[in-house]
Amino acid sequence: MLAAEFRQRFLLQTAAKAGAILHSDQHQAAVLIPIIDYGDKLHVLFTQRALHLRHHPGQISFPGGRIEAGESSCTAALREAHEEIGLAPNAVELLGRLPLQSTSTGFTIAPWIGLLQPQRSWLLQADEVAGIFEVPLTHFLQQENRHQFSLRLRGKVQQLHAMPYQDKFIWGATAAILHRLCLQIA
């Protein structure tokens, strides 16, 4: 899938689905789903969280974090991507937002989709990010690479998404957000 087709498919579905409101009793966060346009292919960029972090240490995620007081979710996603991986906000073509994603840890995440050109280098914030990697978007578009499993968390059985890729195990909210994106552009 090329960037023009991705953009068209995403934009056709976005307007009706992005109107959810963040609830004040939950921790509010925003993430950027960076889609890198290599011309003939698209890749999704992920971060691996540092092991010493209080929330989700070592897990695979998208650049993002808490929404600060008075800040929009869009601004937060771009700010966090700049802080965590050195991605300049003006290097991102924001396409829109996917529906809000709740987590079992009480967060509500606003996921923003952004197209960008390949970057010369990344500037990782070592306090938050242990590493980054890319996966071809086509990997996730294949249904056989998207899985669900049940897990008992905090006294409840929950359905979680998982999307393994090579030696990486993408699961939880990150995989659920990616699953929604795949359904939207399919």
Automatic annotation (TrEMBL):
Q: Does the keyword Cell membrane apply?
A: no
InterPro entries for the chain = CoAse (IPR045121), NUDIX_hydrolase-like_dom_sf (IPR015797), NUDIX_hydrolase_CS (IPR020084), NUDIX_hydrolase_dom (IPR000086), NUDIX_hydrolase_NudL_CS (IPR000059)
The coenzyme or cofactor needed here is: Mn(2+); Mg(2+)
Residue stretches in coiled coil: none
Q: Which domain of life is it from?
A: Bacteria
The GO terms describing molecular function are:
coenzyme A diphosphatase activity; magnesium ion binding; manganese ion binding
Q: Which PANTHER family match?
A: MITOCHONDRIAL COENZYME A DIPHOSPHATASE NUDT8 (PTHR12992:SF11), NUDIX HYDROLASE (PTHR12992)
Provide the protein name: NUDIX domain-containing protein
